[in-house]
């Protein structure tokens, strides 16, 4: 029996396994100072051992050298860290199941930065800013628009100026040979007006280049719409005159020709053009196009574009041009098989067909093109249709004037034979 107040003590048998015994003396989970000293001594011992085993030419230091035990430098005892510090532009990510001093440095994602060492998280940049390449600073977002200096802008500028120059050259040729039958046929005044309007069409495409401003946004569509209506209305009147003259050549058909005199032709062109001018003025007054900085297309840059303001106004502008072009095509198509002395209708048919095809293809391409590429599509449509009209209408005439002067006679145009040289 044990005395009162005494407890029974357990004696060791000598067969115990210390690893399986839980005792405060062997508990190393709390990283007590004694255990830290223990690890430091072992780390130093391992470092000295590695130095003794080091082979010159394959060492861990610069130039694959080894440390000398007689002159060991402090920067040569192992470092007492698991992971190096995370530099700016990265954040710490703790390794699962390892001590808190063990972590990975994860680069900040696009649009986020960290400008401190060992940042635990990255900070998002403001709306108009974006992270730089090192992800350690927010910089203003770049602004994108169809510029004069980029390859696409240079190509459009060159094509626009070349088209305007070509119109000037053709205008000079027609002025020099203005008394010849080819130029005088079917109202030469309308031909000069078409050349002038085509030159304006080529030049108005330059308003679509460069950083959008209020005045360029307002002028680009107005200039484009009025210039093309002036051109297409002249083509429409020329086609109507062709049909009227052919009808007048038949017995009793000269009564309707009085409605297609020079003054009536001018009045029709002016009237049709004024309708488009009224559409443009109404559009600009009610809901004017204006520059807009769009941040929805891309996250890393701002797209500077011209919003049309009123979709209805833009649609009416394009629809009116399309209506005149389709009407010109239909009338020219009806007159395509007239006798040779009225064969200008064939060229009008082809030119208006090209014009309509370009602008029909423009609509879906414009709708599905974001940012500056919508402007590029519109500029391409303007230049392509302008070149199509210029070459189809004036190419054959310039060919006759410059290369086949023997056909530039009234006899040849009336189909009564070609004079001998």
Brief account:
This protein is mainly α. Helices cover 50% and strands 8% of the residues. The protein has ten helices and nine strands.
- Return residue spans where pLDDT drops below 50 for at least 5 consecutive residues: 416-421
- What is the rounded distance between the termini? 153 Å
Count the DSSP helices.
10
Mean pLDDT: 83
The oligomeric state of the chains shown is single chain
Q: What's the helix-strand series?
A: HEEEEEEEHHHHHEEHHHH
Query: In angstroms, what is the radius of gyration?
Result: 42 Å
Q: Approximately how much beta-strand content do the residues carry?
A: 5-15%
Q: So what's the overall shape? A: rod-shaped
**E-strand count:** 9
- Bin the helical content: 40-55%
Structural class: mainly alpha
- Name the strands of the widest sheet in spatial order: 7-9-8
Q: Quick one: biggest sheet? A: 3 strands, mixed
Walk me through this protein's architecture.
The protein has 421 residues and is mainly alpha-helical. Helix content is 50%, strand content 8%. The strands form four sheets. Strands 7-9-8 form a three-stranded mixed sheet. It has a two-stranded antiparallel sheet with strand order 1-2. A hairpin with a 6-residue loop joins strand 8 and strand 9. The longest helix is centred in the middle third of the chain and has 35 residues, at 214-248.
Keywords:
single chain, about 425 residues, mainly alpha, three-stranded mixed β-sheet, two-stranded antiparallel ribbon, rod-shaped
